[in-house]
Structures are given as C-alpha cells and as structure tokens.
TrEMBL record:
<feature type="binding site">
    <location>
        <position position="262"/>
    </location>
    <ligand>
        <name>Fe(2+)</name>
    </ligand>
</feature>
<protein>
    <recommendedName>
        <fullName>Coproporphyrin III ferrochelatase</fullName>
        <ecNumber>4.99.1.9</ecNumber>
    </recommendedName>
</protein>
<comment type="similarity">
    <text>Belongs to the ferrochelatase family.</text>
</comment>
<keyword id="KW-0456">Lyase</keyword>
<keyword id="KW-0627">Porphyrin biosynthesis</keyword>
<dbReference type="GO" id="GO:0016829">
    <property type="term" value="F:lyase activity"/>
</dbReference>
<comment type="function">
    <text>Involved in coproporphyrin-dependent heme b biosynthesis. Catalyzes the insertion of ferrous iron into coproporphyrin III to form Fe-coproporphyrin III.</text>
</comment>
<keyword id="KW-0408">Iron</keyword>
<feature type="binding site">
    <location>
        <position position="122"/>
    </location>
    <ligand>
        <name>Fe-coproporphyrin III</name>
    </ligand>
</feature>
<keyword id="KW-0350">Heme biosynthesis</keyword>
<keyword id="KW-0963">Cytoplasm</keyword>
<feature type="binding site">
    <location>
        <position position="53"/>
    </location>
    <ligand>
        <name>Fe-coproporphyrin III</name>
    </ligand>
</feature>
<dbReference type="InterPro" id="IPR033659">
    <property type="entry name" value="Ferrochelatase_N"/>
</dbReference>
<dbReference type="Pfam" id="PF00762">
    <property type="entry name" value="Ferrochelatase"/>
</dbReference>
<dbReference type="InterPro" id="IPR001015">
    <property type="entry name" value="Ferrochelatase"/>
</dbReference>
<feature type="binding site">
    <location>
        <position position="181"/>
    </location>
    <ligand>
        <name>Fe(2+)</name>
    </ligand>
</feature>
<dbReference type="InterPro" id="IPR033644">
    <property type="entry name" value="Ferrochelatase_C"/>
</dbReference>
Length: 337
C-alpha cells in the first residue's frame, strides 16, 4: 500500500440530540427549495428518536470495522471520518489530516450510486473542504460501488432472511419492493442512478427470490408538489399491491448503505404502518451497515485503486464505473439538486 497514506470516510452527517435537529436541517437545506412544512415534518421524524439520527453511530461503527479489517489484513493505514452536514465536518477532518502529515488519501463515501446527491455533491464537498485548508492532502474518491459484490451480497442475504421471516402462508406469493431515495427528475445524473438501481434490483431479485415479482420504488421525496420526482412512491406502491391482491411485501432498501433516518422513519415507521393498515405482511430487509462483506469491499476498493488488485469485480450488467468521474459528470443542465 504505497499510493495512499490514509483512508477518509465521508458521510452525510446527522443530529445527535434535540438541539441539533433544526441547525442540522438548516445545513442540509441551505439554498434548496424545500417547503417549510416539509422541514417541520422531517424535524418531527428526528424528534421521535430523541433528535438522534442513526447515521453517525453507523459511521463510527463502520470506521471501527474498517480499522479492524485493515489491521487484520496487515494494512497499516489511519482512517478518518468527516461529514457534509454535521460534526465532524469534513473541513475540520481534512485539517487534522494535514496536521497529521497525510499527503494522499482515498475517500470512501457512504453513498453507493451515481447522481448529483449521491456522488458529485460529495466530490464538491471534498473540493470545498480542501479549499479551506492550506496544504490539504490530495483526496481520491473511490469508485461508485453500487454493483460491487460487497454491496450487493449483503442485500441478497438480507432479502432471503426477510422472506424467511414472513408467515408461511404468504411467503410464496410475496412481492419485493426495492426502494431508494427519490430525487427530482431534473437532478443531473438521475438516468445513471435509475439504471444502476434497476441493475442492482434485478441481481438481488434473481439471486434471493427467483420467481417473486418485484418492482423498484422510491421514498423520502421532499420538494414542492409541483416539481416532479422519481416515482412510484413506496406508499402508493403498497396501496396498489394490496388492491391487486398481494398479501406480503419484502422491502429491500437498496438505495441505502446503512440505517439512516429515511430507513428508520420512512420505512420502519411510515411504510410499516401503511402496510399494516392495508393488511399486508411486511418485512424490511437489513442494510449493509457493518456486514463483513461490505467492510471487506472498502479494503478491496482501496487496494484496487492503489494498483494492488487489478480485477474490478462487479455484478449485474453494467460493468465497473470509472475511478474518476469526468469533470462535468452529474453536473449538467440547470442546477437542480
Ligand atoms: C439521493 C439521496 C440520498 C442517498 C445518497 C446519500 O446517502 O447521500 C440522500 C441521503 C440522505 N439524506 C438525508 C437527510 C436529508 N435529505 C434531505 C433532502 C434531500 N435528499 C435528497 C436526496 C438524497 N438524500 C434530495 C434530492 C433532497 C432535497 C434537497 C436537496 O437537494 O438536498 C433532507 C431535507 C429534508 C427533506 O427534504 O427530507 C434531509 C434531512 C440523510 C441523513 C439521514 C439521517 O439523518 O439518518 C441521508 C443519508
Ligand atoms: Fe436526503
């Protein structure tokens, strides 16, 4: 491992107590066209959990798991962590890295796909943070990993477990609802996002639940109602499925790497309640979190990018995404985030 002298975990950030919720939401939505009512409603989701998002805990656990995995493989590399929207802020982390003498780091982002929100915005965050720190290290974001076996295999396993957990009499006819965060149709990179999501859904469905009907749906939309976002929404989908006679749904949140608030609230509270109201048996499959296969993927991506592991494993039909996105990638057209 000669190319990199550090690994940087980059994430979204989330509040860690009731007083953090509004400042956090202001950070997230600065300069965005999010209706005030939506913000208040989302604040309530956080307050249901004492103002604590699961995401920072997930990042601490993932960082510890990566450190242990690297050490177990004889790779002596410090791991740092910085966020876009909450402490530890990326610029502060980059400053610490500089002070520690880091010259060149690989960045692992807790978002697996291509799109403005999933990839480019994190690249911009890294650029901005480096711009604030004189003598900042070089930072290379690792490739988009939605179709890496280390991301997909935990979902295959989780889908099988969720199916197995359904009551016997409804399991055979269960539908799979793969879900991902919706984005506005105008968001740059939206086509790649959908293409990658379809590819992952097809692989997981074929491996975990051959013969079961499945659909890709969206969740957590937020813009004004006049603005079109990716559809169908998971709640509408559940209604349609129930009306068509479906009795059981397994929800696989392939858009998420861990249990974010969108998973804990939008799926485990809201979609779960909707399914109960409709008389549907409903199970939500686990996210990768700190699954050992997912953690190992981080090391594999790091070695791959360092030139120490020439193969670029993928599943599905799309092949490996490039190491570095073209400068205009997920940035074209009107600035619609
Ligand atoms: C594609 C995508 C991902 C997946 C990629 C990735 O993982 O990064 C993602 C992740 C996340 N989104 C998160 C939280 C929020 N996202 C918001 C708003 C928005 N998200 C968008 C898209 C995405 N978001 C978009 C197009 C908006 C509209 C405003 C804007 O264009 O920015 C808002 C504002 C309120 C609301 O509108 O809901 C909040 C609070 C959290 C933290 C959750 C926690 O605390 O556990 C995480 C991981
Ligand atoms: Fe979001």
């Amino acid at each position: 491992m000669s190319t990199y002298d550090a690994l940087l975990l980059v994430s979204f950030g989330g509040p860690e107590g009731p007083d953090d919720v509004i400042p956090f939401l202001e950070n997230v939505t600065r300069g965005r066209n999010i209706p005030r009512e939506r913000l208040e409603a989302v604040g309530e989701h956080y307050h249901l959990f004492d103002g604590v998002s699961p995401i920072n805990r997930q990042c601490r656990d993932l960082k510890a798991a990566i450190e242990a995995d690297l050490a177990a493989h004889g790779i002596d590399l410090p791991v740092y962590w910085g966020n876009r929207n909450w402490e530890p802020y990326l610029a502060d982390t980059v400053r610490t890295m500089r002070d520690d003498g880091v010259r060149r780091a690989a960045a692992f982002v807790t978002s697996a796909y291509s799109c403005y929100s999933c990839c480019r915005q994190y690249l911009d965050d890294i650029d901005r943070a480096r711009g604030e720190v004189e003598g900042a290290p070089e930072i290379d974001k690792l490739r988009v990993y939605a179709n890496h076996p280390g991301f997909v295999a935990p979902f295959v396993e989780a889908t099988r477990s969720a199916l197995a957990d359904l009551p016997d009499d409804v399991r055979d006819g269960a539908h799979l609802a793969f879900s991902a965060h919706s984005v506005p149709l105008s968001q740059p990179g939206r086509e790649s996002y959908v293409t990658e999501l379809r590819d992952v859904a097809a692989v997981v469905a074929a491996e975990a639940a051959p013969g079961h009907p499945y659909e890709l749906v969206y969740q957590s939309r937020s813009g004004p109602p006049s603005q079109p976002w990716l559809e169908p929404d998971i709640l509408d989908h559940l209604e349609k499925a129930a009306a068509a006679g479906t009795r059981a749904v397994v929800n696989v949140p392939i858009g998420f790497t861990s249990d974010h608030m969108e998973v804990k609230y939008d799926l485990d509270v809201e979609a779960t309640a909707k399914a109960a109201e409709l008389g549907l048996a409903f199970r939500r499959a686990a996210t990768p979190g700190t699954h050992p296969r997912f953690v190992a993927m981080v090391r594999e991506l790091l070695l791959e990018r360092s030139g120490d592991a020439p193969e670029r494993p993928t599943v599905g039909a799309l092949g490996a995404r490039p190491d570095a996105c073209p400068a205009d990638c997920c940035r074209n057209g009107a600035r619609a985030r």
